[in-house]
Structures
1.
Amino acid sequence: MNTAKNILKQRIKLYSSVSCLLTSISLFLLLTISTDTYAQKDSGFYARSCGKLPSLAYSMGDDRLGSPKMGYIDSGILFRIVDSSDTWYKVQLAKHRVGFIDKKYTNRIAGFNPKSNYYTGTITAKGTDTCYDIINIALEERLPYKAWMETNPAIIKLEVYGAHTNTNWITQFTTLKEVKDIYYTQTEEDVMQVTIHLKHQQHWGYSLIYQGNHLLLKVKRQPKALLLNKLNIAIDAGHGGTNGGAEGVKTHIAEKDLTLQYAKTLQQALKKLGIKSYLTRTTDTTLEMKDRIITLQQLNPDFLISFHCNSSAIDTVSGSSTYYKHIGFRPLTQTILKRMLELKMKEYGNVGNFNFGLNAPTDFVNCLLEIGFLSNPEEEKKMVNPLFQKKVAQQVIKAINDWLLQCK
Ligand SMILES: [Zn+2]
C-alpha cells in the first residue's frame, strides 16, 4: 500500500481540478444535457448485471484502489443504461438516483419492454438452523439495491431502487435471533427503504442475493460463544506472485514476502493456542483480489485480518495504521491499532471508508493492518525482524480478545 503517495496524488488532483474549473463547467453542462436527454424514456436501453462480483459505483472516479464502490451486486439485475464512457455505463437506479457500472459486467437485453411500475410484495423474516437470519423481500423484478451499516444502535439499511411499495406486510418469526425489528418506508416515489435493527451492538456481516425475483438479505448472527478458540479466523497475506507490492528501502525485501511471514507467524501463534485459522495464500502465488473475496465468502469466517506494509515517497513518514470501509466493522480495527502502538510504533491512524478490496465485503468483519512503512529505514529494520513479527502476532491476538470483550 502507498497511502501517503496516494494523498499526494489526490492533492495534485485537487489543484488540477481548480485549474481546470472551466473544463469542469463545460463538462457539467454536457452531463446536464445528457441527463435531460435521458429523461426521455426511449433514449436508454436495458442490460443485466453479469460476471465475477459485479459492483455499482458512485462515480467514474479512478482512484488507485478503483472507483468508489456503492457495493457488490448480484447478477441478473436489471439496469436502464442512460449514458456511457469508454468503460462505464451510467445507470438510472431510480428517478433521482444514478450509479455507474463497468461495461464488462453487463449484458445488453434487446427489445426489453419494462413495466411502468415494479411493485413490492410481502416481506418474511426467519431464522435458519445455521448462523443466519434471512429477510426475504418479494419483488416483481431483479431491481438494483444498496445496503449499508449504521451504529449505535446497530442497524442495516437497504434501499431497493425502482421499487413501488404496495400494501405489504412483514411477517417475523420467533426463530429470528439477530434481527430485532424490521420496517420499511417509501422514501422517494420509486425508492423503498428497509430498516433492520439488530439485537447486538456489533455487526457480524450480511450478504444480499437474489433467489428468483426475491431479494434475500442474510444477516449473520453474533456467534454463540465470544471466545477466540470458537471463531473462524481468516488471515490474508497481501499481494503475491507477480504483484510484489512495496519494497524495503534498505533490504529491498518485497512486501509480498513480508506479509506472508506475518500471516504465517500469526497462524503459528494461534496454532499454539489450539486455534485453527485459514490463510488466503501459503506460497508466493498471484491471487486476484476478487478470487480472495469469493473464497472468503465461501469460507464464511467470523473475521479477516489482511497484512500489508506501507510505503511513502518521503522516507521520514512512519507508523502503523488500520483500515475499514463499513462503520460496523470499525471496533476491531481500533483495538488492533491500539495494541500495535504498544510496540512503540508511531500512529498513522485508523482510516475509515477505505476502498481497499478486502475491506469491501460486508459478509464478515474485516480489518486491513498496514504494519509500518517499508520506505522508512528504521521501521523496515524493525519489520523484517522475526522477533518483532512474533510480537505483532501476540498484539493482534490481544486485540482480538479486547474486541471480543467489548462485544459482550
Ligand atoms: Zn500492500
2.
Amino acid sequence: MSLPAPNPDRTCLVTGASSGIGVEIAGLLAARGLGLTLVARTESKLRELADTLASRHGVRVEVLATDLTDAGARSGLRGRLEELGLSVNVLVNNAGFSTLGPVYRADPDREIAMVRTDVEAVVHLCVLFTPGMVERRSGSILNVASTAAFQPIPGQAGYGGSKAFVLSYSHAIREELRPHGVSVTALCPGPVETGFAEAAGIAPEEMAASMPKMFWVPAAEVARVGVDGMDDNKAVAIPGLPNKASAALGWLSPRRILLPIVAKQHPGLPDA
Ligand SMILES: NC(=O)c1ccc[n+]([C@@H]2O[C@H](COP(=O)([O-])OP(=O)(O)OC[C@H]3O[C@@H](n4cnc5c(N)ncnc54)[C@H](OP(=O)(O)O)[C@@H]3O)[C@@H](O)[C@H]2O)c1
C-alpha cells in the first residue's frame, strides 16, 4: 500500500495548505505528479501556491477556500469535488493550531474553534472520504498529530488532548481500513518553525527558547518524513531522533513525575 499513482480523476486533498508544513506536503505530492486540492481559509495564499505548483510540476491544482470549523462548509467539500469529477485518493488532514495558557484563562470560542479544527474536521473528512477509498480499494490518509500526543501538556491542555485524539483515532481507523487497501499514517512532529507560534500567540523567540535546538526540524523535512511515511505505509512517522526519544519518554513516564516538570517549563503557564 504505497501512495496511489497519478490519475486525472483523483485528487490529493491537503488541508492547511496556505502555510508551513501543509505548503511543503503539497509541494512533495505535486512533485510526484499528483493532482491537488488545496484547503484553508486564506484563498490568496492558496491561489499563489496553486499557480506555483501547477507551473512547476504540470499538475492540476484547485483551491477550495474553506473554514474547517464550519461543519456545513466541510460537508460542502465533497459536493464541490463531485462537481469537478474528482474523487479523493489522498487525504492530508494537516490544518490545525494551538491555544496557550491555563484553562481558567482560556477564551471559550477559541478553545472550541481549536477542537473543531484539530479534532472535529479530522473525523469529518475521514468519514466523508473513506467510503470512496474503500470502494476503489485505494487510498492514503496522513493525519498530522504532534509529539504533544504522547503525554498531556499543562499549558496546552486542549491542544495536547486534541493531538492524542488524532493519534489514537489514526491507529484505530488504520486497522479498520487496512483490509480494504487504504493506509493511514499519523505524522507527529516536534517543534517546527512555521506560522504555528504566531497563531498560538507565542513570540518566535519565546517559542525557540521553549525547546532545545536539537528538537527543531525544518518544515520541508517534516513534510518529507510524512509523505515517505505514507508511501511506506507507516502507522506513525516522527521527524528526528530527539523527537522519537522524547515521544517514547512522554508515553512511558509516570504522569505524576512527568507533568510537574512539563508544567514548570511551559511558557504558557504563570508561576503558581
Ligand atoms: N509548528 C509546529 O511546531 C508543530 C508541531 C507539531 C504539530 N504541528 C501541527 O502541524 C499542522 C500544521 O501546522 P503548521 O506548523 O504548518 O502551522 P501554520 O503555519 O500556522 O499552518 C496552519 C494551517 O492550518 C490552517 N488552518 C487553521 N485554522 C483553519 C481553519 N479554521 N480552517 C481551515 N484551515 C485552517 C491555516 O490556514 P488559514 O489560516 O489560511 O486558514 C494554515 O494553512 C497543525 O496540525 C499543527 O498542529 C505543528
